[in-house]
Amino acid sequence: MTRWRSVVPGVVLGTFSLLVTAQGVSDTVGIGETSGRLGEKADLSNAPRVTIDRPKPTFPLYERNKRMHGYPPFQALVDAAPPGSVLKVPPGNYAGPVVVKKPLTIEGDGKVTIDAGDRGTVFSLETDGAVLRGIHLTGSGDNHDTDDSCLDVRGHNNVIENLVIDNCLFGIDLKQSSNNIVRGNKISSKPFDLGIRGDGIRLWYSNNNLIENNLVTDSRDNVAWYSHRNIYRGNEGRRSRYSIHFMFANNNIVENNRFYDNAVGIYFMYMEGGGARNNIISHATGATGMALGFKEASDIFIENNEIIYSAVGVGSDLSPFQPNTTIRFKGNRFAYNGIAVQLTSELGGNYLDDNIFEGNLTDVYQAGRGQGDKNKWNGNYFDTYQGFDRNGDGFGDTPHEEYAYADMIWMETPPARFFKTSPVLELLDFLERLAPITSPELQARDPKPRMHPPTRKAG
């Protein structure tokens, strides 16, 4: 038995499913279905391609920025190259846009720039088995309606490597494109306000891609929607909104990445399977700052991550969502966060083992009264533990229990969080602990707390 999503999103997604199915894609989600049905087992490399892009407008030269007037058109080199050949491009500046519809290996050696003059999309890769390497793409348009980007990928088994992408609304946009490698690219958006920038790397109905060793800065989000079994490895993201945002995207793996100064680290939304390991997520601050977020997600593992200096380390809403599923936190370090773990679900199903909690203003926030025993804690290290280890086995003789005293004020009245750590609330909290007027609320109980931080695996 599966849970239903909320009614309004269900109606919207159900309508969307009917529209897409009518165009030839049958493996989509409808009302009452779960993300496990969202094309997880579909092999899009053998499926007919659906027309998913709005028609791209054509811009005459006089409408493009004058800086690229006089550049030779790169399209002429592409048209002259036989399918399957290697195109070694002479160094220099070239004019876009470019459309590639045959398998080519295009080598720029870091000495080639293609500029579309701030109009439309710079480069469209509409083939399978191509290689695009060592080229600087710049100067897309700024139209969200036509998804102006530096690179559109509409094919399978391509390699996109060592590109420099800047002054583009969207960076690399993959739609219905699977088994590609996107590696070693440097991507930034246009210098707009955060909410109206484009995404650095976007996957839509794209499976089994490797996103590796890319640097994405000053973008909006990296997103994967309806895209399964992708691997994000060794990437770095800075000064963006979502480092990675998954939605209806199952069994994706995020490992060995570094995310700094983004509003949100990794967000698992309606996702089943997969997880994150060996990542560093730091300084996810601001009013909505969150290192790891969960929204109706299930069967996720979170292992050996460094979650530091964030407003909220883990923010979980109705997760795990599906019955008899879990979310497993093991071997992570939560340090110097405002709230280390915030669980707003009353469903339980979260397992936290061998984690480190140190220097956080609040280690645990569990929503709902009487819900502190719904999740399972075991073998974690808390720097606030005040017990003893008389038998010397490395574990405390008594359980570690987290209670909310005056903290219940801001927990039950979120606007009061503004006054968290203020002298008044700190005094109230001290008095409540000294002589409780009301019964404190249990937030978490670890029956076997560690006396010392466990040794963490090398990332």
Polypeptide structure, described:
The chain has 459 residues and is mainly beta. It has 3 domains: 7-46, no CATH class; 61-413 and 439-446, Pectate Lyase C-like (3 Solenoid), CATH 2.160.20; 414-438, no CATH class. Helices cover 9% and strands 35% of the residues. The chain has 4 helices and 38 strands. The strands form 3 sheets. The protein has a 24-stranded parallel β-sheet that branches. Strands 3-5-7-10-13-16-19-22-25-28-31-34 form a 12-stranded parallel β-sheet. Strands 37-38 form a two-stranded antiparallel ribbon. The longest helix is centred in the N-terminal third of the chain and has 16 residues, at 7-22. Residues 6-39 have low confidence and may be disordered.
Layout of secondary structure:
Layout: H1 7-22, H2 74-80, E1 86-88, E2 92-95, E3 98-100, E4 105-115, E5 123-125, E6 131-138, E7 149-153, E8 159-161, E9 164-166, E10 170-175, E11 181-183, E12 186-188, E13 201-204, E14 210-212, E15 215-217, E16 221-225, E17 231-233, E18 236-238, E19 242-247, E20 252-255, E21 258-260, E22 264-269, E23 274-277, E24 280-282, E25 290-295, E26 300-303, E27 306-308, E28 312-317, E29 327-330, E30 333-335, E31 339-343, E32 350-353, E33 356-358, E34 362-366, E35 376-378, E36 381-382, E37 400-404, H3 408-412, H4 423-434, E38 441-446
Parallel strand pairs: 1-4, 2-4, 3-5, 4-6, 5-7, 6-8, 6-9, 7-10, 8-11, 9-12, 10-13, 11-14, 12-15, 13-16, 14-17, 15-18, 16-19, 17-20, 18-21, 19-22, 20-23, 21-24, 22-25, 23-26, 24-27, 25-28, 26-29, 27-30, 28-31, 29-32, 30-33, 31-34, 32-35, 33-36
Antiparallel strand pairs: 37-38
